[in-house]
Design brief:
The chain is mainly alpha-helical. The chain folds into 2 domains: 78 residues, no CATH class; 69 residues. Helices cover 59% and strands 4% of the residues. It has 6 helices and 2 strands.
Length: 160
């Protein structure tokens, strides 16, 4: 999921109980939950449950708002990356469709180096794409054009 811009968020409850029982275990609980869910420590949050409280607690609401704000920011980030990937995918598709007969023998590296010079693809991203394609037996632009509909799902064209 991470290559597509999606990262898990973990929310631990009963912060109040753990603080009462053993405050030194709070960080350990966060680390264990982070490891168990695969979320990073910065994506792991502790909140107090409302159960058992009669009044609204602004501290609990603030913690919940922080989690929601973080989740929204991650969602916006994903949409931004997805739109960028979509744009890159359309650029490759367009270039493949425009390709003249003589150009179809271009190597994959030459094809993506040409795109890199016209668009915002880094040398590292081109190398990653070329390696992935070559591992799948796609060595020239003609083969890429013939398999593009299925191949594009295996590539991440942005974020580098």
């Amino acid at each position: 999921m991470r290559p597509k811009g999606i990262a898990p968020i973990t929310i631990l409850t009963h912060k109040d109980k753990l603080l009462e029982e053993n405050p030194d275990k709070l960080q350990e609980a966060v680390e264990r939950a982070s490891t168990a869910t695969g979320s990073s420590l910065t994506h792991t949050f502790f909140i107090t449950n409302y159960i058992g409280t009669e009044d609204q607690n602004p501290d609990i609401e603030l913690d919940v708002c922080k989690v929601l704000n973080f989740a929204l920011a991650m969602g916006e980030r994903y949409v931004k990356f997805a739109k960028h990937d979509e744009k890159k995918e359309k650029e490759v598709t367009s270039r493949l469709e425009e390709m003249e007969l003589g150009e179809r023998s271009k190597t994959i590296r030459d094809f993506f180096d040409e795109l890199r010079s016209k668009h915002s693809l880094s040398a590292e991203k081109v190398q990653q794409i070329v390696s992935t394609l070559e591992q799948n037996g796609i060595k020239n632009a003609s083969a890429l054009k013939a398999t593009w509909k299925t191949t594009k799902t295996r590539l991440t064209l942005s974020r580098a």
